[in-house]
Amino acid sequence: MVRLSKRIEYALLAMQDMAARPDSIVSAKDVASHYDISQALVAKVLQQLARHGLIRSFAGSTGGYTLARAAGSISVAEIIEVMEGAGQALVDCQSTDHSSCSAEHVCTIKEPLGRLQERIQSTFKSMSIAELAAPRELVQLEVL
Q: Are 74 and 11 contacting, i.e. CB atoms less than 8 angstroms apart?
């Protein structure tokens, strides 16, 4: 199964929190205490998101973070790329920096796994932070 790292998970939680409160400045401490997660790791994640322009940072005792763009224009794929880099692959032979595979000459799954990877990436690109922040009832209605 595809598994997202803690850094990606914390980035998604923080950005979801910011999207749900667009008129508020959110601190690492707020996010960490709300979700009962590591404040140190949340702070590092928020700094990385700010360096890449997905969120804005505000210094000072009342400082914190807000989304740099509308929640609907920030995709989950962008966050994954910022947190883990481009070229993340399901299997080594699908990555951009793969080493040669010893079974490449007889492999029958490289092509289908490539299509699966494209579908997963497409899903990540199509899902926005706004969708993550939408009330659960609205998301369920959209599915129906």
A: no
Q: Is the dihedral of CA 122, 125, 129, 130 positive or negative?
A: negative
Are the C-beta atoms of residues 51 and 17 closer than 8 Å to each other? no
**Which domains are assigned to the chain?**
6-88+128-139 (1.10.10.10)
The span from the CA of 120 to the CA of 25, in Å, is 32
Model pLDDT for residues 69-101, shown as the tens digit of each residue: 999 999 999 999 999 887 667 776 766 655 567
Residue 79: name the closest of 113, 118, 50 by CA: 50
CA distances from 1 to 17, 49, 90, 120 (A): 26, 26, 9, 11
Enter the pTM of the model: 0.83
H helical segments located in the chain = 6-20, 28-35, 39-51, 76-84, 110-126, 129-133, 136-143
With beta carbons less than 8 A apart as the criterion, state whether 116 and 90 touch: yes
d(CA 116, CA 112): 6
